[in-house]
Description:
binds pyridoxal-5'-phosphate; 7-stranded mixed beta sheet; 42% helix; 4-stranded antiparallel beta sheet; alpha/beta; 13 strands
Amino acid sequence: MPETYINLFSDTATKPTAEMRHAIANAEVGDEQKREDPTVNALVDRVAELLDKDEAIFLPSGTMCNQIAVRLHCRPGDEIIMEQSAHVRNFEAGGAAALSGANVTTVPGRRGIFDAEALHSAVRPDEAHFPTSRLMVVEQTSNLGGGAIWPLERLDAVCAEAQELGLRTHLDGARLFNAAAESGIPAARYARDFDTAWIDFSKGLGAPVGAALAGPRELMEEAWKLKHQFGGAMRQAGIIAAAALYALDNHIERLAEDHANARRFASEVAQLSGIHVEEVETNIVLIDMSRSGVKAAVFAKALEARGVVLSVMPDERLRAVTHLDVTPEQVEEAARIFAETHAEEVG
Ligand SMILES: *Cc1c(COP(=O)(O)O)cnc(C)c1O
């Protein structure tokens, strides 16, 4: 087994940098539940400003942001509409059903992105038999969609349709800043037409913990109640909020480097026979192994034995994610190891 790994498993793999640890060590703290932690207060003000919403609330995870938002918007029996690959549907342990009694229905999309027509046809008639269509969820960027960015016109179109249909809207912005860094369109513009939106500090931004949900004042007041109810109210949370603030100050613009690294890796891997690499828009590379003659899981194991870790996705695909803790040199090295493994396993 190699001594060091090049970890392309996820952008959750980042560890706090020395400077971030310095910010953590020097954080002013107070009782967050009493809203007296100055660092948390500074952080939520910053997030509200970045997303151009009245207020924001600091939470331990992105999953809790999604689940609190679902509870804010839905009553038991209501239905949420999202693309079939959405995180809320697939990776939150059935939370929408378990915690809010909400039904999830999906629309087909391409790379996680659907259109106004698909949304329209997913909405239920207003009749006693049916669940009440209540909420639309959009993921920017789309994770299982390979880091795809919703183009603004498409986003505006589905939001306009949602409004027309009387739906609430929620933006899963786990990687919203990846979209913003790549397109140059401000995060607030992407979040403009959504009732609630959130960002994750523990993905590409490189903080160890935390996410923040933003929205209108009345909803955020309700969200505070749910933060307590869901067990997300903390105490001296300034310790972790300091890392998030540091990340907002220092790690947004550099996301473009991750995107360049992802493209570099993809362009090398794409040259190998039997391998199809999906279009790279941000920091996620999806590699279709289905025509290579080797199982994605087997290939991933062989890669790991050589020191490169990535993840195995459905449909015989591999996913590589670039982030703060992988250098351009490591990405070159990972591509070289990928080619070597390919020569061995595929021939
Ligand atoms: C990671 C992720 C989440 C959940 O965030 P956590 O902070 O890991 O709970 C939600 N949505 C998307 C699209 C994600 O990639």
